[in-house]
Amino acid sequence: QQQVKQSPQSLIVQKGGISIINCAYENTAFDYFPWYQQFPGKGPALLIAIRPDVSEKKEGRFTISFNKSAKQFSLHIMDSQPGDSATYFCAASIRGTSYGKLTFGQGTILTVHP
Amino acid sequence: DVKVTQSSRYLVKRTGEKVFLECVQDMDHENMFWYRQDPGLGLRLIYFSYDVKMKEKGDIPEGYSVSREKKERFSLILESASTNQTSMYLCASSPKGGLRISEKTYEQYFGPGTRLTVT
What we know:
The complex is a heterodimer.
Chain A (H helix, E strand, L loop, with lengths): L3 E4 L2 E5 L4 E7 L7 E6 L6 E6 L5 E4 L2 E6 L4 E6 L8 E7 L10 E2 L3 E6 L1
Parallel strand pairs in A: 2-11
Antiparallel strand pairs in A: 1-3, 3-8, 4-5, 4-9, 6-7, 7-8, 9-10, 9-11
Chain B lengths: L3 E3 L3 E4 L5 E7 L5 E8 L3 E10 L2 E4 L6 E7 L2 E6 L8 E8 L14 E2 L3 E5 L1
Parallel strand pairs in B: 2-11
Antiparallel strand pairs in B: 1-3, 3-8, 4-5, 4-9, 5-6, 7-8, 9-10, 9-11
């Protein structure tokens, strides 16, 4: 049972364009939504995260948009650069536990062409 | 900087062999996790541990076991490797949370992964 569904599976964007990756979740108990970035040969690393009490969070060129009623959230990468080429994972967690378990989406392979 | 290391980057084993994957973290984290990463399936949690000698099953524990004898070390064991266990295995750690937890609790720090091939 995939509790977090991510799309698209792969994405090709030209340099300077906007990359958009979408995620939808089912469990309404989720209350923390991070995005992880993974470069080839490396483990994933936290990129940006949002809590459901805000609808948007921006860090540099990266923005998370959150729609609680639709149970969806998305990552927008503005002015995409070749260095952004990586695999991106959305995730969700329930903050009330002490274990910090994350449920990950299927991943999106982003390729930014120069 | 948090550092999570995994014993091997690449491993080739034969069907039926017992396989040990080792993970060590240097940040005194209470929580440790084992995932497998497969194309189109994302990261799936196999087991996690929230303290020494404590473990809980994740979403896909079948065919795997774990051991945590020391806080910094978490081992994944494939008792009898099968070809469907060919995958990338990722270890992660995170600090303990609680009622007054910060978002940092949910930042998992990953190792570089072990690509296991079972032939």
